[in-house]
Every structure is written in structure tokens, then in C-alpha cells.
């Protein structure tokens, strides 16, 4: 037996097999090869390509899905108000890999605080002398970060009042391992029939309210003043999102997420310093990331200059289209 083991090179074969099954961490990606996506507020969606949309979808849809993980979000009606939805459930499924076992994290809007562990009770996965390949970091009771270190990816979840927000940062080559991106919100966006023209809603409030059968809780002028008072640098699409949410809900949790945190520096994956306000006018808006847990705010930061944010112009206020309901996907 020993002779056969040596003769046929079984030792080398066994070594190669074990080496092939080892966990290998991806090196840190250049900021130009990283993508960001976020869903927050009414909800507002910031896609990987920088497109900004406001949607009225109900039901479950994948935010991001690839060979490594799945983020599924469920939007539900708010207080029975017509065409008013928010994220009320987020499910993150981390798929089995050489670097991790299968893990599942669930966040629900009706709970008092975000869970500080995965569904199986674990908070991390260790490989190679206790090096963490996956780690759950609880920044505060309403903010949890899931770090998938082996693929240089982070997923951020925040609960503000009864509403959830989620953001993901991942290398492009990780995201491109998906079989299809046709139904992923971060790639394909909202259904065209569910996109709300926010700028038109602000400029023609009464017409919008009648068309979409939505109640205006706060006058536009008051909502605008309130949002501008949160930050003098809050402008563009994010200011519109803040005004829209506050105008239609009058609720602070909806008003906080669109606060934009500008900074001159590039995003650092481990940088949790408070954001420095003040942005050069030449630097476009492009992405969303939680960067200052101690501040209590969801913050948004610039990513890279080649993308700009575009508001959808698919519908006019006269096109009152009923909302579709999504179908929950099997989480496997």
C-alpha cells in the first residue's frame, strides 16, 4: 500500500486537493472597480450605475444576487396610505463557500432592534488560525454591518424608527458572477410602472397628490426648509428625496436617510471617521455608504467621477399606473 501511495503520487494529489479547498481572500479592489447600491426611504434606490430612482413597489425582490450572496428586500405599504411603501424586511443569504458555511441574516422593521447575530446564533466565521472570513459588526442597536472579508464586500443595514435601509459595497467582478441581473434592483432598477417622478411631484404637489392618491402631510416650502436645515450641502436628487419623504409622511425617520455626507476623500473600507462636510462643485453625487456609526446618520458619499445621477423621466403626473406586487424568491 505504501509503495502504491509513493508510486502513484497520492500524497501530492491529496495535498493539491486540500490546497484547492482552502479559503483564499480576494485582494482589496481599486475604488474604480467597486460598486455601491442602496435602498432607503420611500423607498429611494441608488443603483450601481449611479441612477437615482424613487419607487412605489410592494412585495419582495432581490436587491443583489450572485454566486456569493443574496440580498432580498420586501417593501410594504405604510400606514395604509396609497402608493406609500418602505422597506420592512431585509434577508441576507451568504452562500456556502470554501471560506464560509451557509449563513442567513434577517432584519424586520417591526422588531425593536436589529439582530446582533445570524439566524444560527453565530457572529463570525473563522479560517486559517482564527482569521475572520465573515463578520457581523453591531455598530449600535440600529446599525449592523456584515463584512464578507474573503470577497472584500460589506453590507450595511440600518433601522430608523420602523423603517429599514440597506446598502452594499462590493467589487465589480464579484457582482458579475450572477447568472442574470434582469430582476435585481441594483442593476435593473424599479419597474418602469412603479417609478415616481419626484421632481414633478415637488413642483406640482396638488396634481401629484390627486394622480397618485397620496396625502400631503407637510407643505413643500416647510419640507424644503426643514431638509435644507439638516445640511447646507444637501442638494440635487438627495434634497428632492428628503423633501419628498418629509412632505408625504411628516415622519423624521423618512427624512434622515437622504442626508448627504460629502467629503473630499475617497471612500475607505475601514474608515469610520466622521464625515467632513463641504464638497467641491465639480464632484458629482454617485453613491451611498454608512461611514460614521457614531453620528447616528445614514451618510452618502461621492464615489467616482464618471457617473452622475439621473432622475427618471418615464412618466408624467397624468400617467396614474397601479402598482405591481413582487413575488418572494426562494432563498437558496
From TrEMBL:
Q: Its GO biological process terms?
A: BMP signaling pathway
InterPro entries per the record?
RGM (IPR040287), RGM_C (IPR009496)
The beginning of the lineage is:
Eukaryota, Metazoa, Ecdysozoa, Nematoda, Chromadorea
Cellular component (GO) terms are: plasma membrane
Instruction: Provide the Repulsive guidance molecule C-terminal domain boundaries.
Output: 34-250
* GO terms, molecular function: coreceptor activity
Full protein name = Repulsive guidance molecule C-terminal domain-containing protein
Amino acid at each position: 500500500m505504501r509503495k502504491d501511495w509513493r508510486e502513484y503520487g497520492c500524497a501530492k494529489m491529496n495535498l493539491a486537493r486540500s490546497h484547492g479547498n482552502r479559503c483564499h481572500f480576494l485582494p482589496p479592489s481599486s475604488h474604480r472597480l467597486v460598486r455601491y447600491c442602496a435602498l432607503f426611504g420611500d423607498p429611494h434606490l441608488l443603483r450601481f450605475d449611479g441612477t437615482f430612482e424613487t419607487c412605489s413597489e410592494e412585495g419582495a425582490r432581490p436587491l443583489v444576487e450572485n454566486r456569493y450572496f443574496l440580498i432580498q428586500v420586501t417593501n410594504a405599504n405604510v400606514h395604509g396610505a396609497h402608493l406609500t411603501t418602505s422597506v420592512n424586511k431585509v434577508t441576507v443569504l451568504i452562500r456556502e463557500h470554501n471560506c464560509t458555511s451557509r449563513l442567513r441574516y434577517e432584519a424586520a422593521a417591526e422588531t425593536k432592534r436589529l439582530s446582533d447575530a445570524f439566524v444560527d446564533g453565530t457572529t463570525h466565521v473563522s479560517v486559517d488560525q482564527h482569521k475572520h472570513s465573515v463578520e457581523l459588526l453591531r455598530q449600535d442597536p440600529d446599525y449592523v454591518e456584515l463584512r464578507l472579508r474573503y470577497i472584500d464586500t460589506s453590507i450595511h443595514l440600518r433601522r430608523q424608527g420602523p423603517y429599514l435601509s440597506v446598502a452594499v459595497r462590493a467589487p465589480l467582478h464579484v457582482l458579475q458572477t450572477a447568472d442574470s441581473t434582469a430582476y435585481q434592483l441594483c442593476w435593473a432598477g424599479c419597474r418602469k410602472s412603479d417609478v415616481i417622478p419626484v421632481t414633478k411631484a415637488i413642483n406640482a404637489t396638488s396634481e401629484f397628490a390627486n394622480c397618485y392618491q397620496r396625502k400631503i402631510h407637510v407643505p413643500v416650502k416647510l419640507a424644503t426648509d426643514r431638509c435644507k436645515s439638516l445640511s447646507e450641502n444637501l442638494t440635487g436628487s438627495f434634497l428632492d428625496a428628503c423633501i419628498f419623504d418629509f412632505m408625504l409622511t411628516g415622519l423624521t425617520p423618512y427624512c434622515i436617510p437622504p442626508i448627504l455626507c460629502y467629503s473630499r476623500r475617497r471612500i475607505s473600507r475601514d474608515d469610520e471617521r466622521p464625515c467632513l462636510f463641504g464638497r467641491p462643485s465639480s464632484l458629482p453625487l454617485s453613491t451611498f455608504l454608512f461611514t460614521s456609526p457614531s453620528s447616528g446618520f445614514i451618510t452618502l458619499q461621492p464615489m467616482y467621477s464618471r457617473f452622475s445621477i439621473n432622475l427618471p423621466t418615464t412618466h408624467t403626473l397624468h400617467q396614474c399606473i397601479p402598482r405591481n406586487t413582487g413575488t418572494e424568491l426562494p432563498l437558496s
